[in-house]
Structures are given as structure tokens and as C-alpha cells.
Design a protein that fits this description.
Blueprint lengths: L5 H23 L1
Length: 29
């Protein structure tokens, strides 16, 4: 992991954030 593409990092971060944000929503329902 020397040269990481910013696009890939952003995509992973966005996915992680979306999953984390959707987790409580699913549990609440």
C-alpha cells in the first residue's frame, strides 16, 4: 500500500460511511 489511488480511497470511505450510516436505519426498522 505505497501508492493508493485517491479515487479508490474515497470510494472505500464512501462505501464504509454509507454502510455505517445505513446500519442504524436498518436496525431501527
Amino acid at each position: 500500500l505505497h501508492s493508493v489511488d485517491p479515487n479508490l480511497t474515497t470510494s472505500i470511505f464512501l462505501t464504509y460511511f454509507t454502510v455505517f450510516d445505513n446500519m442504524p436505519l436498518q436496525q431501527n426498522k
